[in-house]
């Protein structure tokens, strides 16, 4: 089954919803970056939420980047989505290991940390992209997105994200974002709250074989949900030898001159997808001369 996100409304347009199944793109991120289970969960949750945020963007060329820095051993989580929900991302330390919670669940907050910021950069074609930074509240990711929507967009939201890894492979991944529009009536809000209280976790719902359509109907039961569209999403990196070359510029003239002198070549990996690019001595000299 391919990954996809459904967009929907409910409660006479007073509620909007996104539900995603993202097993393949999270598995691709895991295999590209060779992340540990807890790193896969943190990165996968962020990829899933950011994909849905990408689909909230209005124009075709819009992009959204989410950067989570919680002070934990995973370092930074960085994910970018285009307006079609296609994502790419990485964490600073894919090898992070943290002891599980006593109930056996992955301690994502232990890896991410709880003291820091969620930064959201929206590139909507203006010279200066929108850029907002909000304190991290839990480090478990979903709550942090809920907090972000409340603070930055004054939109009360319910965010649920989950990644289930068995053995070495991602078995299930997905999530939903349900948001109340400013005109939401008390009755619909109460109904939604009732539904949320008795909801099982997103990973349980996926494990039981529910599709995003099924999950939408469970979360918005009694609120007459209507699906607007269904968007296939994937892990996609559009890097090239030319773009990755910027990393050579970033290391500075002195360091680059040293590499040319000592190694006469360089191999650089794209941080988003780990694809490796090789540069010859001539290519490196050309970069140096243009700096
Ligand atoms: Zn790449």
Q: What's the story with the biggest beta sheet?
A: 5 strands, antiparallel
SS-derived structural category = alpha+beta
| Net shape | globular
> How do the strands line up in the largest sheet?
8-9-2-1-10
Beta-strand percent range: 25-35%
Put simply, the count of helices is: 11
Bound molecules: zinc ion
> What are the low-pLDDT stretches, counting only 5+ consecutive residues below 50?
none
Average pLDDT number: 95
**Oligomerization:** single chain
Total strands: the figure is 12
How much helicity do the residues have? 25-40%
H/E topology pattern: EEHHEEEHEEHEEHHHEHHHEEH
N- to C-terminal separation? 47 Å
Rg from alpha-carbon coordinates:
21 Å
Structural write-up:
The protein has 291 residues and is of the alpha+beta class. It is 35% helix and 29% strand. β6 and β7 (130-135) form a beta hairpin. The longest helix has 18 residues, at 37-54. The mean pLDDT is 95. The structure holds zinc ion.
